Amino acid sequence: MPRKSISEQSLTTDRWISFDPLDDEIIERLFKKSIHEGEERLMLAVLESAVEDFQKYVLARKPRGKQLFQHAEDWFLEKDSEELFSFENICETLGLHPDHIRKGLMVWKEARLKTHSVEGHQDRTKLASTRIRHHPVRLSKTA
Fold first, then answer.
1. Cα separations (Å) of 128 from 20, 123, 131, 132, 134?
2. CB of 18 within 8 A of CB of 6?
3. pLDDT per position in the chain (143 positions), as tens?
4. For the chain, how big is the Rg over CA atoms in Å?
5. Would you list the domain boundaries of the chain?
6. Torsion of CA 110, 111, 115, 121, to 10 degrees
7. Contact predicate 78/87, CB 8 Å
């Protein structure tokens, strides 16, 4: 009796996977693929979370927001880390260029800080001019 009695087409029935438990090749292929895809999804989620924290908290004033931003920025800027979920390792696994992403994030950060600085200055100028334009109400005694 041949070991590969189950064809690729018959592996899936009603969303259940059925295969010959003695066929090591099919088992290995199925589990390696699912583990590899799961690791990539997790790495992508870690990257997305870091980008979100970086963008959301770039102008943070509260300590927790500042801490989240700094942690994300440090993670992006760290080079030559041996950790599995380091920025460079994730980029390599996902086929992304870490220096290109770093540069894009730093350019975005500088533009956001500059825009915020200009907006803040305009708001203060507008507020000052609004205060000057409004003349105080003078109460006078009438006879």
1. 79, 9, 5, 6, 10
2. yes
3. 444 444 444 454 455 555 555 666 766 666 666 778 889 999 999 999 999 999 999 999 999 999 999 999 999 999 999 999 999 999 999 999 999 999 999 999 999 999 988 876 555 555 555 554 444 444 445 54
4. 29
5. 21-130
6. 30
7. yes
